[in-house]
Amino acid sequence: MADVAQLAGVSHQTVSRVLNDHPYVKEETRARVLEAMAKLGYRRNLTARALARRQSETIGVIAFDTSLHGPASTLFSLEQAARTAGYEVHVVTVPDLQPQSFADAVDRLVAQSVCGVVVLAPQRAAVQVMVGLPADLPAVAVEGGAAPGVPSVVVDQVDGALQATRHLVELGHTEIVHVRGRQDWIEAEARLEGWQLGMTQAGLRVREPLLGDWSARSGYDAGLVLRERWPEVTGVFVANDHMALGLIRALAESGVDIPGEVSVVGFDDIAEAAYLRPPLTTVHQDFAEVGRRCVDVLLERIEAAERWFQGRPVVVPGRLVVRASTAPVRPER
C-alpha cells in the first residue's frame, strides 16, 4: 500500500479510502490510485486486514435445514448478495435445534472473525435458541422469525396465501381446502392464516386443513384423503409446490380432471412448476430480493452503534403466478 501511495503521489490514508470506496475522494485522485494499483499489480491482503481490524469481510450463516426448497434458495441468494457486496460467506449447518448446537455454531463463526451472522430461522425452536446470540454480534434472521432485538427479513406469507385463496374464490370455488406444511414451521402457520383469512372474508366454510410435511409424499397422501373425505371440494390451496405435485398425482390416479374438476394452487414457484402437468398456479417468492435485503440490513447493523434492534421486519411481497392448474368452476358443479 505504501508503494501505491508513493507512485500515485498520495498519502497511505488516501489509498485506504479508495480501497474502501470512501465517498469523499476526488475522482481524479481515485483514478490515479487505481492506475498505480494496476501498474504495481497490487492486491489487498484481506487476511492482514482482518488481523489488523480483528474483523474479516466475511458474513456467517447458521442454517438448520437446507434440504428444502425455501432454505436452499435463501442460502444461495444470501451468498450471491454477499459476494456482490464484497463479502465472503461461511456457512455452518446445525444438526438439531438445541441451544448447545447453536452456541457451538456461533463459536465456530466468531473464531473466523465474521463481522455479522445471518440465521435461517424458519422454525419456532430456531427463534428460541437465537436468544443465545452474543449481544455484540450483529445478526439478522431470515425466513421465519427473530428473537427480541434481532431484525428479520421475511416474505409476506400471509398475503401470498391470501392471494392464492382469493384467486380460487374469484374463479367461483366455494369448497376450498388447505394442505398445510409442518406444524413447527412459522411459514406454515402464516400460510394457514392467509387461507383462513381469505375464506372468512369470502364468507365461506373453513374446513379442517389436511396435514403435510412439505414432501411430495405427504401431498400424495393428502390427495387420497381429500377424495375420500370431501369429494365435493373443487379448490385446493397447498402450502408448497412439492406437496402440490404429490396431490395432483393422487387426484389424477383417482380419475380427477385438473383443473376441470379440481383447481390446485401451490406456493414457492419452484423451477419445475411451469413444467408440471398441468403447469402449476403458485405463489412466487423472490429469494434474490430476500438475499439482497438481508445483506443490506446486516451491513446496517454492523455499522450501527446500538446493537439492539427495535424496528419492524423487512417484508418482501409474494406474487401469484397463474398457470393452467386453476380454472373457473364448471356450471354443473
UniProtKB/TrEMBL annotation:
<dbReference type="InterPro" id="IPR028082">
    <property type="entry name" value="Peripla_BP_I"/>
</dbReference>
<dbReference type="GO" id="GO:0000976">
    <property type="term" value="F:transcription cis-regulatory region binding"/>
</dbReference>
<dbReference type="InterPro" id="IPR000843">
    <property type="entry name" value="HTH_LacI"/>
</dbReference>
<dbReference type="InterPro" id="IPR046335">
    <property type="entry name" value="LacI/GalR-like_sensor"/>
</dbReference>
<keyword id="KW-0804">Transcription</keyword>
<keyword id="KW-0805">Transcription regulation</keyword>
<protein>
    <submittedName>
        <fullName>Transcriptional regulator, LacI family</fullName>
    </submittedName>
</protein>
<dbReference type="GO" id="GO:0003700">
    <property type="term" value="F:DNA-binding transcription factor activity"/>
</dbReference>
<feature type="domain" description="HTH lacI-type">
    <location>
        <begin position="1"/>
        <end position="53"/>
    </location>
</feature>
<keyword id="KW-0238">DNA-binding</keyword>
<dbReference type="Pfam" id="PF13377">
    <property type="entry name" value="Peripla_BP_3"/>
</dbReference>
<dbReference type="Pfam" id="PF00356">
    <property type="entry name" value="LacI"/>
</dbReference>
<dbReference type="InterPro" id="IPR010982">
    <property type="entry name" value="Lambda_DNA-bd_dom_sf"/>
</dbReference>
